[in-house]
Input
Amino acid sequence: MNKASVTSFAVIKHTNANVKANNDLVAVEEPLEIIMEHGPRDKRVSERLAVTMRTPGNDLELVTGFLVAERIISTRDDVINIRHCQGQQQKFLGNTVKVQLHPQTPFDIKQNLRHFYINSSCGVCGRISVDSIMESCRPQSGSGPLISSEVIKSLPAVLLENQLVFNHTGGLHAACIFDGQGSAVWWREDVGRHNAVDKVLGAAFLSDCWPLDNYVLLVSGRVSFELVQKACRSGIRFMASIGAPSSLAVDLAKRADITLLGFVSEQRFNIYHGSNRVKARVSIL
Output
């Protein structure tokens, strides 16, 4: 089900020259409820897993990426079907997704339960216990891609070209997965940083390109611990951001041996870990 990702509001615009009434496009933010159907064929159970605030669009990819990042599913065979369904209230029409797990896919709602409301910009704070996400992230297999500094500095411009809703509203985060030559393969936008990453990971997962050890993940905002954790669980060995990483994000990147770059632009970038995967023409002093 397609829903608009932007809406128009009447505004009063103040400039140095004048004040006038006008219309302005704003990114849509609506709740998405995730319902899990699981259990043996003769004893199926449906339970609410979470509600997240997101920008409508690519909802099935968002839910898929979320489930993969939470390690609820690991292969496409774990899911029989995933679809939009009508919620109990009119306001949830098109804002509810039901996931039908395979009867042999294990699922324990108590181990995966989140609060009914998850802030779209902070996935960690929705967890019942922060300790439950502080699990070790082992170094990934494979060496990962080797990317030139010229390609790295070209990535933000490619991402911006594909941020269609952001270009109209200025109000969305974005995530993009590139191949080793700097070509954008999948890109998604959302009002939440975590949702944008879940959407793009879900797109890759549903395209049967998994794991993503030979790809580069670029995000538009700051890098938090949980975004690196999502990258780790998808096999990503090379992650970059236009913004800054947190200290915990750097710690986890080192623990998982993920190349982590920050402040990527046409002129510069910082390497916080994994310089061996960056081909640079200049020597490191």
